[in-house]
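User: tokens in, sequence out, please.
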């Protein structure tokens, strides 16, 4: 690879999908727009993996935009933490695009297909931008790019309720963005900088001031709306349930994960662990809200009749596991959070891909529509079961690894009772996953399913890939847990 190209990989990670969105906007053929998007989404993981390998080999990458040196110019700063997230986001996009060709064509109006792929690439640009930037206001700009495109993608769902879901998300997302801007405004007033690295140095000298504490509170609340932290989650179930299936997969696997990354970045890289644990008492607040999410959302999921909506509520519960690790604020707990960001993305991706395959074949995601599908679509339904077992945390799946780290973190923090609650909440997941398994494998298909068969390879292969990844990362953890543990050492100042 050319040296000049290698040195500009951070910029190319953003510029390529952004230009691709512009090209798709000028095309009136859906298949051509899909092909362009597909090529771009296959390039993105190559770049992100190259960045990760560079960080592992040479340390943190600092890339100055336009030749303006930080902190005066915008800096793209890549360390192990965000390189890890870049690989996740770009890889999920590369998995979703092959799936999207048939799935989106079946759920979106033909004349809207070029616009769909334009919005998809814009959303990808925003998520990658949030992850790679080292500037607080630049993160807000990318946050809005991803949010605005997400609203459009959700609204393209064939159910009329998709418009309401998009509007609901728009309102709450705007409130969250406003809180975030107020927070960084307060920080800028006091420090005169928005560069993450520079902020970290300056805040350490003035962290006792009320302004910094108020800024931290505004930013935490704003990002909490974006991650759908209980009880700020009301936008998520409708958004996931009524969006086109490919959009649900992409958002569930990436959007909340990038927002969680941003929260971790602010809390541990910028504000510091003392503000997290002492000044704002976030430990106790987040533990309470995380437990409420784990038990409340899981309980609601049990009674859902729409499988997409059921798994959407499950996402709220799974976010609770991630924020629980953040609340513990120790090495094992935070490692569990980062690992679960990765593992939940692949598990939930596999689940929603399988559900989308059912929607493609049967035309419905109601649980009755899944009756006996194990006999008609055995591979797809097998992947659905594997993803569900991952959510429960069955040993041998990726979900078990995450929960193991969280349990160890709880014990290290002196909250042994949390281990019992982790197991109990997993039993709730067993109930709603068990409902699906019972309907799929232990009921006979009705006559309306006589002509139903396994989905085409372009839908099946991505589903099998993420299901296989759910098992693989439950057995081999050097990439997921290994890199996450190294990133946590840096976040907590434990790196040698």
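Assistant: Sequence out:
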């Amino acid at each position: 690879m050319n040296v000049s190209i290698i040195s500009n990989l951070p910029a190319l990670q953003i510029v390529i999908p952004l230009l691709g969105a512009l090209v798709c906007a000028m095309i009136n053929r859906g298949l051509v727009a899909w092909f362009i998007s597909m090529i771009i989404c296959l390039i993105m993981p190559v770049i992100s993996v190259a960045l990760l390998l560079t960080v592992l080999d040479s340390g943190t990458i600092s890339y100055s935009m336009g030749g303006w040196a930080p902190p005066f110019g915008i800096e793209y700063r890549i360390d192990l933490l965000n390189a890890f997230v870049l690989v996740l986001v770009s890889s999920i996009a590369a998995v979703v695009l092959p799936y999207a060709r048939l799935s989106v064509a079946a759920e979106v109006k033909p004349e809207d297909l070029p616009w769909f792929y334009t919005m998809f690439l814009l959303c990808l640009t925003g998520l990658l931008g949030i992850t790679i930037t080292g500037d607080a206001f630049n993160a807000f700009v990318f946050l809005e790019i991803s949010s605005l495109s997400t609203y459009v993608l959700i609204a393209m769902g064939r159910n009329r309720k998709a418009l309401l879901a998009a509007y609901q998300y728009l309102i709450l997302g705007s409130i969250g963005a406003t809180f975030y801007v107020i927070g960084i405004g307060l920080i800028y007033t006091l420090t005169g900088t928005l560069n993450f690295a520079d902020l970290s140095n300056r805040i350490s000298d003035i962290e006792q001031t009320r302004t910094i504490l108020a800024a931290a509170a505004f930013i935490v609340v704003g990002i909490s709306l974006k991650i759908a932290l209980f009880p700020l989650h009301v936008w998520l179930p409708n958004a996931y349930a009524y969006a086109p299936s490919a959009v649900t997969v992409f958002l569930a696997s990436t959007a909340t994960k990038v927002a969680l990354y941003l929260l971790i970045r602010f809390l541990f890289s910028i504000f510091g662990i003392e503000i997290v644990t002492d000044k704002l008492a976030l430990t106790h607040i987040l533990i309470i809200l995380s437990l409420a999410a784990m038990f409340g959302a899981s309980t609601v999921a049990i009674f859902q009749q729409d499988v997409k909506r059921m798994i959407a509520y499950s996402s709220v519960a799974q976010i609770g596991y991630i924020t629980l690790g953040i609340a513990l604020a120790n090495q094992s707990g935070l490692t569990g959070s980062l690992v679960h960001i990765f593992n939940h993305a692949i598990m939930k991706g596999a689940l929603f891909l399988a559900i989308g395959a059912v929607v493609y074949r049967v035309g419905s995601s109601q649980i009755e529509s899944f009756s006996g599908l194990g006999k008609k679509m055995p591979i797809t339904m097998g992947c659905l079961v594997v993803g569900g077992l991952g959510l429960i945390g069955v040993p041998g799946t990726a979900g078990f690894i995450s929960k193991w780290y969280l349990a160890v973190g709880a014990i290290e923090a002196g909250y042994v009772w949390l281990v019992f609650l982790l197991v109990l909440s997993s039993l709730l997941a067993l109930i709603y996953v068990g409902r699906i398994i019972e309907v799929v494998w232990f009921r006979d298909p009705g006559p309306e399913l006589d002509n139903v068969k396994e989905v085409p390879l372009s839908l099946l292969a991505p589903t099998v890939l993420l299901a296989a990844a759910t098992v693989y990362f439950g057995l081999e953890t050097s990439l997921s847990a290994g890199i996450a543990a190294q990133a946590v050492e840096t976040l907590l100042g434990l790196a040698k």
